[in-house]
Structure formats: C-alpha cells, structure tokens
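$ fold --in a.seq
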Amino acid sequence: MCVDADSGQQAPLAPYVFSVIGDTPRIKPELFTSIVEINTEIHTSTNSAMQELLDLYKQVDVVLQNQNGALLSSGTHPVSHWRDQEVSDDPRYYQLLKRLQWVARRFNICGIHTHIGMPDGDNCIKVMNHLLPIMPVFLAISANSPFWHGEKTGLAASRIKIFEGLSQGGMPFYFADWQDFEHCTQRLMATGSIGSVRDIWWEMRPHPDFGTLEIRIGDMPASFDDTAAYVAYARAEAMAAIGHEEPLKVHPSLIRENRWRACRYGIRGTIIDPFSEELIPVLDWLEKRLDQLAAYGIDDNELQLVARQISYWRTNGGGADSQRELYNTTDDFSAMVRAMRELDGW
C-alpha cells in the first residue's frame, strides 16, 4: 500500500510511480491507485526470489519518497477507508466493479500470491489436493490484518473475510484430475459466470497461463523475514507433494474450521490436526511438519527460513500481534503506521 509518510493514510501515488518507472511486468497497477503490485521473475530458491522482491520494493519506495510517500506491508490498512480510494484507470477494473458492485469496491486489501511451477496439469491438481488441508496454516503464519477502518476486529486476518465475498472466492475444491478442473472452468465460462480463468479467485488455484499452482490465501506479511518464511514453506509443501502419494482427503468441514481459527487467532491459535484430528497449537504443528518435510528431502536452507521465524514468532507473535501491540502502545494510528514501516525489515 502507498501511504503518506506523515499521516500514514493511504495515498493515490501509484500513477506517479508508474510515470517514473515506466511500463514493466514487475511493477503493476492494482484496483486502487493507492496500491502497487510487485512481482518477481521465476526463481529456483526462496532467497533469490526474496532478493529480487527486496530490490523492487526499494525501487518503488525511493520513487515514493519524492512525493512524501512510502510503502506499507499489511493485509488491510489500519484506518484508511475503501470509500476514499480512487479506482485505477483500467477497463478491466471498471468491468469488475460493474459486475461485483459493493463487493469489489471494498477490495482494499493486500495479499501475497505465491506461484509454484508445476510439471503438468495432473500434478498441479495432485499438489492442490495435497495442500487443501493445510491451507489454514498459510493463513495463520501470514495473518496481518487485525484492523478494518480503524476498528479492532478481534480477528488476526480480517482481509480473508473481504476476500471470500467474491463470486468465485473462498476455498477451492478437491478435483479428480486436470480434466475435472477443465470441466469446471468450461462450465463456469459457458454459463457466463467467469470470463476467463483469471476470474476464479479461490484462495488457491491452478494458473494455466503460467503453468503454476498459485497460493493466494495469505495476507501480505508484516516483514521481509515473515514473507521469506511464508514463501519457503509454501514452496516446500508443494515440492514435497509432487514426489509423494496424495494423502487421504480431509473433510472440508475440518478445513473450514481450521481456516476460521487461523482467521481469528493467527499463529497464536490452536488447530485441529487435519490428519490425526487432535488439537495442536499452530506453531507446534508447523515445527513437526518441518521434520516431515526434511525427511522428504526438501532443501534444508529453505526449511531453516521457516524454522528461524518460528522461533521469532514464539517470542514476538506475528504481524497481527505486532499491529495490536503498536496500537496499544501509541494509541495513534499515524504513529502506529510509521512504527510498522520501521519494523518491517524491507
């Protein structure tokens, strides 16, 4: 999010950024002129992807400084209202607003979308089925949206409640194979429900144009290190799933309950282990899971990015905890946003 460096409020500075940087696939417009999308090239390690992301972030931030602006990493802005945001000058966004109305107009949220390359369509569906039961963990470790229009929501990730309001939002489904997914998308297109696969906004989806599985459930994490841990964990789970048998399907009711627990409590929550159905704290589950991923042969450098952050989260909490603590300490949203920017590590 683009914010004013003094007030901390969202500022419509994205058009200025593009006027300086020019047309590039790495830095792109979003629905509102106060939001910038930053995305990397293809990488084969989390560290290299994060280095490019850092370089792009700094490039945008330097441009914004010329307008007394800055970037803010958060799932929602703590106080700025969606009614005050200007819509970007793009026909697709106006069509989106015309179709979805109030639901799209409230879409003043930021998430992290992680694309993981797949060898083929059937493997993509296999990995998606594998990741469905653990999607709530992705949400829990990224949870970074406890405020909505200056209100304490009591949620760690309020963004997800806005995201799920889209016509094709929410959790994806189990599919038998790639053909089953194709039938689903063809049916949606034939009935006028979507214009293309891009209009499927599930929290995880195949992306045929890129040959990837796109994990979209996460809030924009609070810091550089949180982001690196999130990307490394998502990548590790997907790579492990490619090489192993698909697990037994977990009932969607259990996944939905864990999704709610992640939304409500973030990394401080207790989830239902999707495989044993025992209650377990999120971070304990994740720690055990890293041992399993190591046994699958996942690169230890990737797993260490997650393990180090687990230690940090145990002591300091996640992004949502940090936002709440800053608000309780400052009781002033402008000071809180400045402090968030100082602590984000970008």
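$ fold --in b.seq
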Amino acid sequence: MGQAESRNTAAPLTDLRSLETRLAAFSGVMPDVPLTVVEEILLNLPAHHVVNECRLVCPEWKELVDSAAHWRERCMREGIQPCDGSRPPVDWCQFYFITKKRRNLIKNPVADDKFQGWEIVENGGDLWSIENSRTPLPDKTATKCFVTSYRLCLKQQLIDLQKEGYSAAFMDHLQPHIKISDWYGPRYDCGCEYQICVELLGQNKNPISVFQPEKVFIQAWTDKPWYQMIHVFKNYGPGVRFIRFTHGGKDTQFWAGCYGIRVTNSSVEICPAAER
C-alpha cells in the first residue's frame, strides 16, 4: 500500500488526446481498436487522467474505466491490497484513491523536531519535555517520546483536510474512515494519567463527531511499558473540514520533573472502509 504512482506511460498523453479526437469523430461507433489494447494504455497512465479525461472519450471507455476489474488490476500492479483478503473492497476505485493518498496527517509525531507542529495547550508542573524512550515500541517505530509533568500538560494539532488534499466533495461524498492511533505509557516508578480527545470539525470549527474516552490511570510498578489507543470514525456525516487532535496527562505523585505520561507515534489517517 502507498506505493509511488506508476510513471511507465506506454502512450504519451499527447498521443492519447490525438486518439480522443479521432474517436470523437466516430460519433459513438466503436473504433477498430481492441479494448484490451485500450485498457493496457489506460493502466499505464496516471489514474487521475484516466478518471478526469479518458473516461469522457466514449461510452466504451467510460464502461471500462468504471469497471471494478480495471481498478482491481491497477491495485494489483501497484502492490495495493486490502489488509483482509477475505473482505474485498466494495468499490475498488475508491479503495485505490484513498489508499494512494493515505499517510499520517500528524506532523512530528515522534518528537524528532522537538515540539514543531504542536500547539501547547496546558504546560503545568515542570512543563512538557522530550526524552529518549526507555523501552522501544513493539514495532520499533519511535525512539523518542513527549513527556508530561506533575500538573496537567496538553498539546494539540489542527489538521486542515483541504490543505492535505482531501476536498469537501471527497469528504462529503465518500465519508472515508478516519483512523486515529496514539501510543502512551508510564514511568515504571510512578503512576500517571493519560487523556485524549479527537474532534471532527466543520468549516466553522464546530464539532461534528468527538472521540473522548475516559481518562486512563496507570499505577506505579506496572510491567507493561506501552499501550495503544485506537479509534475509527465512521458514518460521521457531511461537513467535516478539520480534525483536532489533543492529548497529554500528568503524573499522580506530584513529583518534580517529568514523571508523567509518555506519548509518541500519534497518527491520524484517512483509510479505506474495507479495513478492519
């Protein structure tokens, strides 16, 4: 998933436009070009050209571009496959485009650039800090973490979906699943509190859907170094234009320094509905 878009263009776009002009002269009569050849040409063109231009050439091309077989073949060639092979996508075209655009929309999720990209909302006690992770995450994806203190520390990011390439029409029509994930963990020698709130917001920043579970309290001397918070927004309705991600916490001992919750590898992804 997420492979670079194929640039192996078997027919230059100028040649395709010339072919479009000649096909238009047929006035709906099927040209003497096998559809298997046409499809091979389309499979080697950028997907957005196929949808926005090639699909309009003639009824035969439209039928070809609208077929599940075309997008299933494109997915196979570019190494894009559903996470669960037993549950194929309902719409292979939507699956292709959502998967190609999929990425983590959170900036600086693992503290590589200090606090760049984050807005500090609460900075209590001895303030937010950054440390090397004492224990690596299970998937080894992060070596640093953000750390809170003995008073409440919160930070957030506001994601502008249009700036990230997800238009209003795209969000309203498809309403793709929005998956959030956050890793959090305690110091072994101190209890801590963790909280998270993720909001889907409208154009005026009004909440449309909110994920805000109860605060998590972790006792001292806990053997498990990391926990993962996951939530998927579904069927949230039209109007979502922004996502506000807020998390943080504090320790439960009121110890000076940074003995609070550790958070890292936060993510917000627009993902296919076929994923479970």
